[in-house]
Task: inverse folding
């Protein structure tokens, strides 16, 4: 594990690699996703039951505040932006929550809908938490469901785990796949406790089951489903994925780090070290 960069060093890295700052996500794609989330399209809500009061304009204003996209509603073509200082602030908050989990030796679930790019980051965090005495849960391994592929076709997806416990989806081609779906996390929680998964214990006053996540570290629908179930959730989201930011605005998601989630995996190594350093889990030289 590399040493943690300073805040200034990491800010420069974020901008240089286009993880934040001027990013390669098309503005027109962002606005389309904002419109679809506001319209209640389930694919763009990531398993969260969001308030019906969201409008496309309100989503844009929220994304300006929480992600740093261009505030001009007249900007409808070209690339968009992510504020690197918001990314840094939320990386620090994520690290602090992960550090708390380590000190408490909490039960944790870790999952990604971006296995091609974010897996090494999640693996490093899961490994550090396991080393600190946390239980990294791996429920519903091998659980399958069908997805539609268009033109009446379908494919199977199954939950698999990368060591030491990072959930992701694999297809019949034995390759991992990108997903927005909340269903796999819902299946994981159902296996741990059908009652808890169905009742979303947050605020219910009921006791947690013996094995239940205290913290989810995830993205996309994995994070949305965990937050909807009342689990403390920290995660990552791109500027074209407004649902987790809306979930944070509604108090269902604890921390959302805005970043481009599709750059080369090695570019996330400094972020990983920064998170672990703020968690107090970075290995000593």
Result:
């Amino acid at each position: 594990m590399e040493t943690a960069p300073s805040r200034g060093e990491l800010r420069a890295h974020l901008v240089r690699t286009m993880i934040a700052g001027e990013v390669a996500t098309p503005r027109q794609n962002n606005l389309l996703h904002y419109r679809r989330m506001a319209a209640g399209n389930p694919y763009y809500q990531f398993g969260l039951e969001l308030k019906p009061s969201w409008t496309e304009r309100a989503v844009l204003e929220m994304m300006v505040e929480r992600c740093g996209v261009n505030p001009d509603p007249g900007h409808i073509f070209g690339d968009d932006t992510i504020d690197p200082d918001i990314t840094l602030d939320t990386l620090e908050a994520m690290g602090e929550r992960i550090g708390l989990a380590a000190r408490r030796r909490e039960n944790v679930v870790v999952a990604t809908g971006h296995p091609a790019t974010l897996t090494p980051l999640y693996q490093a965090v899961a490994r550090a938490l396991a080393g600190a005495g946390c239980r990294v849960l791996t429920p519903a391994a091998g659980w399958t469901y069908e997805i539609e592929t268009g033109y009446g076709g379908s494919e199977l997806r199954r939950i698999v785990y990368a060591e030491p416990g990072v959930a992701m989806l694999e297809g019949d081609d034995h390759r991992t796949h990108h997903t927005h779906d909340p269903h796999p996390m819902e299946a994981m929680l159902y296996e741990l406790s059908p009652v808890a998964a169905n009742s979303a214990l947050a605020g219910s006053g009921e006791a947690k089951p013996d094995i239940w996540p205290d913290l989810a570290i995830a993205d996309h629908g994995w994070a949305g489903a965990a937050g909807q179930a009342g689990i403390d959730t920290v995660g990552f989201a791109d500027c074209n994925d407004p649902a987790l930011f809306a979930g944070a605005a509604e108090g269902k998601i604890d921390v959302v780090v805005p970043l481009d989630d599709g750059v080369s995996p090695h570019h996330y190594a400094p972020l990983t070290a920064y998170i672990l350093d703020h968690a107090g889990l970075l290995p000593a030289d």
About this structure: The CA atoms of residues 116 and 265 lie 8 Å apart. The mean pLDDT is 94. The first strand starts at residue 21 and ends at 26.
